[in-house]
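User: Could you go from structure to sequence for me? I need the amino acid at each position, not a summary. C-alpha cells:
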C-alpha cells in the first residue's frame, strides 16, 4: 500500500495484527500432503452440530432472494424466554464476536480505555484499539496460584479509572480455561463504577459446572452496566453459521442495536438457531462427553509429566516444559492440529480441544512421539 494511504488508516488499526484462527485442515493437507488429519485447535464440538439444527437445515424452505427478519423477532423471544428476560434485553450477532465489536463501538473511542486480563481472548484488544481506545492488560495470577494464569479481579478493579469505558472478561476464560466464581464476580460487579460497562463473555458457559454459573436475569436486573455474550458456535456445534447474542439492560441493547448492521444474522442461521436452542438432549450429551473426556485427557497429560491448567471449558491448556512452537510444528507433521499460545503470552503452552476418545488417543500418541 502506498505510504500516503497507510498513513490515512486509523492509528489504532495501524498498530494491530490480524486475528489468527486455528489452522484449517485444508491448509495442512495442501502444505504437507496429509490425508488423515484431526483438528483440536478451535474448540469445536466433537459431537458435531445439534441434530435439531441439522433437521432444520435439511428442511429449510425459506426464500433466499428475500432479506432475513432484521429484528430476528421469533429467535429473540426464544432467547429471552430461555433466560427469563424481556426480548428488549437481547441483541443478535453474527457470532458473539459481533457483540464484542458493537460494545466497543458504542462505549469506547479515543481518550477511553478498555481493561482486560493478561492471557485473555485476542479479540478484546482488537475491537478496542480499532476504535482508538487504549488497552490496559492487567497481569494475571502467576503459575503458582490456586487458579494459575487466572483473572486477578482485584488488580482489574484497580486498573479502572474515569476513562475506562469497558471491562472485557471471559468466564471460563479462553485460552486458559480458568474461571472465577459467581461470588467473586458479583463482588467485582458491585465495585465497578456504573459508568463502566462490563462485558462478560460466556462462550463456554455450558461446559461449566452448574454451581459455578450465575443467574443472568438477577444480575442484569441489578447491574445496568453488564453485558453477557453467548454463542451457538461451541455447545450447539454451529460455528460455520456464525450466530451469537448479547444480554443486557434494554437501554444498552438499544444503543447496540442502533449501530448493528441490518440483517447481520442470515436467514439460515436464524432458522437453525431457533431449532437448536431447545435441543436439550444434545446439550446434555455434549456436556457429559466433554466432562468425561476432559478429565481423562488431563489425567493422561499429567501422567506424562505435563502440567495442565484447571479448565471448565471444552479444552485444556498445558505446559510443554519447553518452547511450544516446535512441539506444535511436529504435531502438524503427525496430522494433529492444536493451538500454540505464544501470542497470548504463554510461549511454553499449547491448547488442545477436548475431542472424542479416538481423537484424544491419537493426539496423545502423537504427542508421545513428539516429546520422545
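Assistant: Here is the amino acid at each position, in order:
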Amino acid at each position: 500500500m502506498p505510504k500516503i494511504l497507510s498513513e490515512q488508516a486509523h492509528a489504532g488499526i495501524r498498530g494491530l495484527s490480524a486475528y489468527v484462527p486455528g489452522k484449517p485442515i485444508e491448509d495442512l493437507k495442501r502444505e504437507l500432503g496429509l490425508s488423515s488429519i484431526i483438528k483440536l485447535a478451535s474448540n469445536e464440538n466433537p459431537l458435531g452440530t445439534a441434530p435439531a439444527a441439522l433437521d432444520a437445515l435439511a428442511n429449510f424452505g425459506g426464500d433466499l432472494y428475500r432479506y432475513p427478519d432484521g429484528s430476528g423477532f421469533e429467535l429473540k423471544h426464544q432467547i429471552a424466554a430461555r433466560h427469563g428476560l424481556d426480548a428488549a434485553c437481547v441483541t443478535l450477532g453474527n457470532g458473539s464476536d459481533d457483540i464484542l465489536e458493537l460494545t466497543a463501538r458504542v462505549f469506547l473511542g479515543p481518550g477511553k480505555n478498555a481493561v482486560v486480563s493478561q492471557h485473555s481472548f485476542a479479540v478484546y484488544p482488537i475491537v478496542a484499539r480499532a476504535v482508538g481506545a487504549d488497552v490496559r492488560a492487567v497481569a494475571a495470577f502467576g503459575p503458582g496460584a490456586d487458579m494459575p494464569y487466572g483473572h486477578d479481579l482485584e488488580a482489574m478493579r484497580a486498573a479502572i479509572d474515569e476513562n475506562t469505558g469497558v471491562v472485557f472478561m471471559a468466564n471460563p476464560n479462553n485460552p486458559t480455561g480458568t474461571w472465577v466464581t459467581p461470588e467473586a464476580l458479583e463482588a467485582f460487579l458491585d465495585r465497578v463504577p456504573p459508568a463502566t460497562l462490563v462485558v462478560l463473555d460466556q462462550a463456554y458457559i455450558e461446559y461449566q459446572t452448574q454451581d459455578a454459573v450465575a443467574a443472568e436475569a438477577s444480575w442484569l436486573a441489578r447491574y445496568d452496566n453488564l453485558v453477557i455474550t453467548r454463542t451457538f458456535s461451541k455447545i450447539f456445534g454451529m460455528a460455520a453459521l456464525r450466530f451469537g447474542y448479547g444480554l443486557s439492560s434494554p437501554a444498552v441493547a438499544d444503543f447496540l442495536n442502533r449501530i448493528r448492521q441490518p440483517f447481520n444474522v442470515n436467514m439460515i442461521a436464524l432458522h437453525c438457531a431457533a431449532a437448536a436452542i431447545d435441543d436439550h438432549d444434545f446439550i446434555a450429551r455434549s456436556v457429559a462427553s466433554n466432562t468425561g473426556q476432559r478429565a481423562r485427557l488431563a489425567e493422561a497429560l499429567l501422567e506424562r509429566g505435563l502440567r495442565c491448567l484447571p479448565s471448565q471449558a471444552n479444552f485444556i491448556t498445558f505446559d510443554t516444559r519447553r518452547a511450544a512452537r516446535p512441539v506444535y510444528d511436529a504435531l502438524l507433521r503427525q496430522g494433529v492440529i492444536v493451538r500454540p499460545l505464544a501470542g497470548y503470552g504463554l510461549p511454553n503452552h499449547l491448547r488442545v480441544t477436548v475431542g472424542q476418545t479416538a481423537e484424544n488417543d491419537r493426539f496423545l500418541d502423537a504427542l508421545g512421539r513428539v516429546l520422545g
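One structural detail worth keeping in mind: The radius of gyration is 21 Å.
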